[in-house]
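ok trying this again, last paste got cut off
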Amino acid sequence: MADRRQVLRIGAVAAAAPALAGAAVAPAHAATGPNGTGADSAASANGATGAAAQKGHGKSKALVVGHRGASGYRPEHTLASYELAARMGADYMEPDLVITKDGVLVCRHEPEIGGTTDVASRPEFADRKRTVSLDGVSVTGWFTHDFTLAELKTLRAIERIPAVRQRNTLYDGRFEVPTFQEVLDLRKRLSKELDRDLGVFPETKHPTYFRRLGLELEKPLVRVLRRNGLDRRGAKVFLQSFEAVNLRILADEHRVEVPLVFLSSAAGSPFEDPRSYADYLTPKGLKELSQYVDGLGPDKSQIIPRNADGTLGSPTSLVRDAHAAGLQVIPYTFRAENSFLPTELRVGTDVAAYGKAIDEQVTFLRTGIDGLFTDNPDVGVLARSLV
């Protein structure tokens, strides 16, 4: 495991530098491509754009991870969103992975797709709507494991939070549900076009749930990575999960060589795990985690909690404790809209309007984190340049 952590550290330094090169991001006026995936103008918080963000001279080597792509500007988990993230300077594209009835990994936030595709408007799939227990929670909707890939490909993506991101609804119905392989193909193409090695940061979603359906995520994930020559030391790949058991399977049974990242919530515990997230993040828990994972992906409130009035409080010891255990720290999720920002960084009263997102990210970067997940990659790149 020590070798993989060394790869992680080297990769973090190598990945950050190219993102400051002007060639990494298309001009804001660039036309969209034939599939609507080009980098057209996308205004960002405090006026930052991908091109402007490249002009900073900061020394931070923190990674910028395009959370579900550039989901602040395009419907999440679409090739259009991933491509825009890359063109804005993100070091990594982050696909959430679920699986189809016929065993193909596809990119969706959850197995339930009623809120991220137009399936609810498709009469031919009306009888697929049902209720399942998803990690102990009753969820009603349509689920990827009830569809073949061919059926999913007839659906089109829609914006998941239209009340906050009304502009993203312009693209509703434009883009397919991509497979993980299609994301890797995009990574390969854009790495060549942008002349920098783009990374992928896939998350396995609800792996225990899928395993009980006979549709485990680990085998096809490892198979796809190896088929593409990406399960090797030095590859620009991180694998992440909220379930420690899933990461142990990847490390111990599949012997993956790429870094593993344990995701944590501010409360609760992994599904059917007797240990809470809080227990995992104690100094003792971090030392134990370091035996099979290489980094943490905590909720950002675990780095800097908020006070009762919604303002930012004082940083916790988590970054220092994780680094002492040899783990990198890449928190989630940084967004530009007021509704997601601490109260002192909001601008006006419109919850969907942009606040001082750059200021928030700079504040977190100064705690020594090793990267961040952001829906607005151009903002992340600019914030990094200021630290």
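PB: full thing came through this time. Confidence is low (pLDDT under 50) at residues 1-56.
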